[in-house]
Each structure stands twice: as C-alpha cells, then as structure tokens.
Predict the 3D structure of the following.
Amino acid sequence: MKYFVRAVKYFFYFSIMFVIIVSILVLIGAAEGDISTMFAGGTSALWKIAALFAAVSAIYPSVGFIRKESSFPGEWNSVKGDIIRHMESRSYIAEEENGTSLVFRKKGFMSKLSRMFEDRITISPCFGGAVIEGMRKDAIRISAGLEHVLNRDSDTRE
C-alpha cells in the first residue's frame, strides 16, 4: 500500500511540475497559450504525457527508496546516543524510538515539502551495524556519515 501511495504522489508531483513549467513558458512568451499549437497532436498529447508520468511514477518508488546496511562497531545501546546526535546535527528529529528501531523526520517544512513528506528515515540494528531505510540519497548520506562518525569514535576510544 505504501508503494501505491508513493506512486500516486509522484504522479501528481510530476503533473504539477509539468503544469508549472508550461505556465512559466507561456508567461515569458516562449510558448503559445493554445494547447493545440503547443503540443504536436493537441490535447491527445496530454494523455500520452500523463501515461509517461504514470509509467515513471510506477517505477520510481522502487528506485528512489532503499534499505542500506551500515557497518560500525559497538552494541546498539552504546551507539544509539551517537546516532541520535548525528541525526540531530543533520536536521532530523526523533519521531519514534522503540527497542528495535529509531525513526527520524526532517525538521523544516521546506525540507519536508521538497521530499513530498517522504522524509522518514528508519534505523534498525543488525549484526555489525544498522539498516537504514528511506529515500535513496538520504539513506546513503546518513549511512556514510554514521560510518564515519562511529568508526572514528571507535578509533579514538582504543
């Protein structure tokens, strides 16, 4: 169900961005305001564009969201505080904390809006580190940052 909701969100996102870009082109005079002259095929081209947006929207959630394993030393309970501090330094706030995972959300409204309110990052313990779930670019950045911070901290402890 989450996949379907994400696909629908992206369809509307792409459609709204398309309307904004076409409107700007019409306002600055780079394109005529008549749909039949703006697109080859007139209004029938809009259905083809919508079908393209639907196809991309159907595929994008499987590509745009990942589960990334991050390896670092230490027990979950001993590194949990460091993980929370690292996430807070990256403008994330703890939304939920239970024994098996930490869930974070982005702080600012504009950050949430730019991610279409898909800003949730879940960090769960696994053997030798943690599994980070969320948007691909955020999960990769957070994974690299956590590995850097927690591995550096383990080097200074020794």
User: Anything to note?
Assistant: The beta strands are 65-71, 92-97, 102-106, 121-126, 129-135. The chain has a mean pLDDT of 88.
